[in-house]
Design a protein that fits this description.
With about 100 residues, this protein is α+β, with helices and mostly antiparallel strands. It has 3 helices and 4 strands. The protein has one domain: Alpha-Beta Plaits (2-Layer Sandwich). Helix 1 packs across helix 2.
Length: about 100
């Protein structure tokens, strides 16, 4: 059963390797009240994309910690926080989970 993330901010970061992603998401989950929504492996490269959900302040705090934790292990490809995803954005986010 999918969790309802409506009204929650989303933080997304992509790193160039899976190990760095797991270290970063662990640090994020410990640093703030966020839920890891998904980890999506890049099928063409060794990296992955992580989506986390929570309040704007928690997602921002978790993102900062995650990116700092990833620095010694890999390269940050991209990252962003969307404070209030539009309904169509929520649909697109949900479509990529487990893909």
């Amino acid at each position: 059963m999918a969790k309802n993330y409506n009204g929650m901010a989303v933080g997304v970061f992509e790193l160039d390797n899976l190990v760095a992603c797991f270290v970063a998401l662990d640090a994020a989950a410990k640093a703030a009240n966020v839920t890891i929504q998904s980890v999506e492996r890049n099928r063409l490269k060794s990296g992955a994309c992580v989506k986390m959900r929570g309040s704007v302040s928690d997602v921002n705090a978790a993102m900062e910690v995650a990116l700092e934790a990833a620095k010694p292990l890999g390269q940050v490809v991209s990252h962003t926080v969307i404070a209030s995803p539009a309904p169509d954005t929520e649909t697109a986010l949900a479509m990529t989970v487990n893909k």
